[in-house]
């Protein structure tokens, strides 16, 4: 039985991976009929913008680039700095500034959509933001990794996506104003680590068509929290280790991949597990629980953590966070 189950899983994984990569390739690389000259990797084109933020209480940052790695981090002065280098002029962004009361909205984007030709474009953009800036980020990159270090910054909302590339968001600082997070990658991993309290966090939406999805919340959360973590092909990891004052509703789904969920001790936990008979399995490690059909319950004195688990091909496990 185990051998048949394993064989079916391998066949399904192989077929789905082939289908996903075929679709992704068709979507992202267009046959334009153009003759591509030899690839010049030298990023000798560049732009630099600076904007003083001392007269504003909040920043709304929009970044929309065709091809670029994007890095966002704190600076030590009152000036926001945008620096980008590229090997093609059309990859470079322009800056637009709008003042809305005590909020400044700054947008960086390409004038025209660049046709994405495999292996012919290269760019890197870095944005440094004054310390303690109250920050909303809305960013979409067609091809490129997104790295955001929120240490020293006060995030409010994050809406981040890339068609091909990894998304990495991290901070050890508390984020007392953060309420909403949405991260999405078509092809690439999504990884978020919040080491401090996120007291007002209400919504986390994260997904990857092909790639691992991982969320770590180490601090205290006082609001009712909705988490939706999904990977079509890839693992899903959600680690909650801080105190939750209100209920947590977690949806975790992996079509092909494993799911690992860690929860803090003393919280009540309920799991509705939807698994396939021959291609998936669900286990609870080192917890006393009761079971009725697909419903599992772990007793606790603290706020309820409700988990809606859906896995087609892969294994799922629930355990206490360290």
Describe the 3D structure.
The protein is mainly beta. Helix content is 8%, strand content 56%. The protein has one helix at residues 2-28; strands at 45-52, 58-67, 69-75, 79-86, 94-100, 103-109, 123-130, 134-143, 146-149, 154-164, 167-171, 180-187, 190-194, 203-210, 213-217, 225-233, 236-240, 248-256, 259-263, 267-275, 280-284, 290-292, 295-298, 302-320. Strand 5 and strand 6 form a beta hairpin. Mean pLDDT is 89; it is low at 1-5 and 19-38.
Helical segment count:
1
Q: Cα distance, first to last residue?
A: 35 Å
Unreliable stretches covering 5 or more consecutive residues: 1-5, 19-38
- Which structural class do the helices and strands define? mainly beta
Query: What is the mean pLDDT?
Result: 89
The counted number of beta strands is 24
The portion of residues assigned to helices is under 10%
Q: What does the overall shape look like?
A: globular
Instruction: Describe the main β-sheet briefly.
Output: 24 strands, mixed
In percent terms, what proportion of residues is strand?
Answer: over 45%
User: What sequence of helices (H) and strands (E) makes up the elements?
Assistant: HEEEEEEEEEEEEEEEEEEEEEEEE
Task: Provide the gyration radius in Å.
Answer: 22 Å
